[in-house]
Sequence to fold (433 residues):
Amino acid sequence: MIPLSSQSRVNRLIIPARLLAAALLFLGPAGMQAQQLQSPEAFLGFPVGADNKLAHWDQIVEYMYMAGDASDRIMVTELGKSTLGRPLILLTISSEENMRNLDRIKEINRRLYDPDSIQSEEEAQSLIAEGKVIVCVTCAVHASEIGSTQMAILAIHRLATEESPYIRNILDNVVFLFFPSINPDGQVMEVEWFNETFGTEYEGAGLPQLYHHYTGHDSNRDAYMFTQVETRLVGKVLYHDWFPEVWLDQHQMGASGARIFIMPAAGPPNPNVDPWIYRTAGLLGFAQAQALDEAGIAFDPALVVLGNGRLDGGERALHALRSLDRPPTAVFCYNDMTAIGLLSAARGARLSVPEDLAVVGFDDIPLAPHINPCLTTIAQPQRDMGRQAMNMALALMIPDDSTTPVSDVVVKGKLIVRESSGVEARQIADPKP
Ligand SMILES: [Zn+2]
Fold:
């Protein structure tokens, strides 16, 4: 059985999993030199991403200013106040040398953005050679997608202190515009609500108010309208000051996300968007995927329990998985009988499926749609498999020119989504990014 996720709980506030996709660009091998800047863990008193621990916006802002004081690579600017009066800050990050030349770099980018200001191809090439890539990252416009703002502390510590060729390469070539949160009010609401309800019967309940004072989840939709102070402050950096070549807006999927936000985007492509945008975004996506691979998301053998294909094997598997320090919140069973045994044991353990534990089987046996909850499973094309097997057997028994030689055959299974995986329910509950 392979658990699909090891998050400790699933709720509308998305607790940072041990690996945040958002953080992967920055989570690499250790070897960073803490100069004067305190490590994130020493500062917070817990490792970033620890279960049930969230840094508050006040702490994040304090850490960002500490990083700015400790490092010549980082400048912290308060752009203004959020709707409810909290500081909305921008970090500008680059090599020490680039930081001394920021005005010139900004001017080059402005001219490259405006072709009318350039007289010739030679001039354009010379500006490109002299300029830097401007990359903007905005975190947590959707405040319940809380991971990226927590990740900010790790990223900034690393960019401020690390001397590796990897980080040096970024600093030398990129001016990095980093917003730890573009909705600080929502960050505070979510963190305070989580801390207030943690350990109570309301733990895991969604925030009972809008996490942006006026626009709630739709704070990102305001990017076409600029009615809110947060959008205006960010828009000024993007469209008046810097014109970044890359803008990464950090979102975070819940447990129902089959894939997290890694480009290339799913089709169909918008015909109004230049195909080059998709192509180059795909390059960034592959780089992220490579970073995931290099981070070596370790295979944990404890998460695979050997079954026997029968009901009792599923029951035993549930107890084995439940005894782990971090029990999984989703399990894939290699046949439906195992899944049904596991569901029965889950009922005995007072776990609700799919809220506490999502379950997927394999086979789509006739019982699968009739148990409670109905089992999500994978159907196999049994008639087709039988026909092909018989043809292959015949080809072995009666070889002649008209029969196809025996070879490997791959058949296609079909995912049948029912209640036990909870995907449909959660897709309705989780607003689109
Ligand atoms: Zn989002």
Residues 1-34, 425-433 have pLDDT under 50 and may be disordered. The CA atoms of residues 319 and 400 lie 54 Å apart. Residues 142, 145, 251, 433 surround zinc ion (CB under 6 Å). The two ends are 31 Å apart (CA to CA).
